[in-house]
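Hi all, long-time lurker, first post. I run a small reading group and we've been trying to get comfortable going from sequence to structure in the token notation. Rather than ask abstract questions, I figured I'd post a concrete chain and ask someone more experienced to write out its structure so we can walk through it together at our next meeting. Sequence below, copied exactly:
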Amino acid sequence: MRRPQAALAFVLWITCLAWIGGCASPGGPAPAAKGSPLPPHEAVITEIASTLTADAHVVTIQASSPLKYTAFRLSDPLRLVIDFVDAAFAPTVQDITLQQGAIHAIHPRFLRRERIARVEIDLRQDTPHKITQQAGKVTVTFSPLTMARAPSPRVPPRQPLPPVSPAAPPVKPTEEPKPEKPVQEVRPAEQPAPPLPHPPVPEPGPSPEAAPVQEPGLVAGTSPQVPVPPAPPPSTLSLGTFPPPAERKARTLEGLRVKKEPELTRVRLFADGKIGAYNVIKQDQPPQVLLSLPQMVNRLAAQEVPVQSPFLERIVIKEEEEPLLVFVLPPTAGYKVYREQNQLVLHFYTAPSPVSAPPLAEQVTPPPSPPAPSPVAPQKAAPPSPPAPSPVAPQKATPP
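-- Answer (accepted) --
Happy to help. Here is the structure in token form:
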């Protein structure tokens, strides 16, 4: 009898456990699956539109939910940048190019690592703007100064003319009598004596010296056009923002400033903190310097900045996750890199030419020297000989 009772108790115990587990499992939390995707963005920008009116230029940004944004301006090139935090763009949102108005183009850019939806608005002129938000709609209004209208002067209303009674006859204007002109007596003038006959004098014609001389290639009455030389490029170029020094480690590259001096060109890179490690690679063909900042984020837009100095031709900013800048140099330029607080400073200058060994002098065999003359004893000059006596003819004696 003990075995059937033990088996029955075991079956009842198993049934109670199954009933308790079935009651607890529907209401319990389900375990989280491994490798689940990241949470979706809070807002999705579905449309960007531009409207041009007589008084303003309006950009409308429509999203699925309210947006959180920060806005700032950049000067080179002139543009307004709006960053929407924890937002993304719908696939239908594309670049917009405008032919007139204060806005030149609108570029949507998505920063995947920071989860930021950036809208860059390129401007044709420095125009004040105003940003307003209503639910999931952000409106940016530009009021161009050139489109402002002056107030029209107020013209007083015209007063009605008094009515004319039909019974009154028309009044003719009276003509004032004109004063009579005094009559002058005309007396016959005395006729002068006839002039003596003179030979005809030819009329003077235009002298050839007084004729205007026209230069070839010019129209008479116009001045020659002197070609105006192009304006020199500015000595200082700036991009982005320039934050103050901070003690924390740098995370983002915020700005760039170029200053051209007579003996060198100085480039300063500004970050939000102290810049740590950096990589520099020098290439000879073509001559250029590659600078990368690992573990940092680039806030500068991808573009090419012309410098046009004797030591640095241009700077190319690559669109990479990490900041990558390419400095294109002339063949004779050199460089140095320094750190100053939250800045990385690069100097570009003319590198000294390598010193070459002087060429070996050619060995030239000198021509044989002529033999030295043998010494000659000095000779004394002989005294002059006395003059020979002249012959005397014999004289004959005369007789006494």
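A couple of things your group might point at:
The CA atoms of residues 51 and 58 lie 5 Å apart.
Residues 24-38, 147-153, 217-221, 360-364 have pLDDT under 50 and may be disordered.
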